[in-house]
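Fold it.
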Amino acid sequence: MFTGIIEAIGSIRAMTPKGGDVRVYVATGKLDLGDVKLGDSIAVNGVCLTAVELPGDGFWADVSRETLARTAFVDLKPGSAVNLEKALTPTSRLGGHLVSGHVDGVGEIVARADNARAVQFKVRAPRELAKYIAHKGSITVDGTSLTVNAVDGAEFELTIVPHTLAETIMVDYQAGRKVNLEVDLLARYLERLLLGDKAAEHKASGLTESFLAEHGYLNK
């Protein structure tokens, strides 16, 4: 689990095809790896990855075909800047909201405009995620916990203050950029709870299977 409060900006150092998927090396910049062990989780642009090697100034992780298919990770390349956050501990401050690091879909930045010292972004989410996005609710964009300021159909607006711009990769966002989205955990569990006994039926299995089926991973 994570909080959505970005701890450092890192960069992709290498992406190596390996047995049908990809092994990636992430240089972690100012992120303190002193307490990170092999097998620990680190969120990279909101994608929970497992450290399989720790060479000192970063970590290697395996990225499955499932992750490549369901996230904007496929658009990254050596030199790409990425948001980083280590998994929370029982003593961590929960400054954002509970984030799983399991991306629900890929959105797109459709507009950027200055708003005094802040920057206003309009983001288009996949249609199937629109029902989980609420005015003044929480959403995770490339691993950053943010508040939704307005909603119009599948599009929503974010107002990003200077500190967040300086400490995340959002400063580089322009129209057309693809971003990882994770909706609020509570919204997903509430939907499942409201299904009641129907939750046990195969076709009522919720967001994850419907998303996979739409993208060809399950038989429809």
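Helices lie at 65-70, 162-167, 185-194, 207-214.
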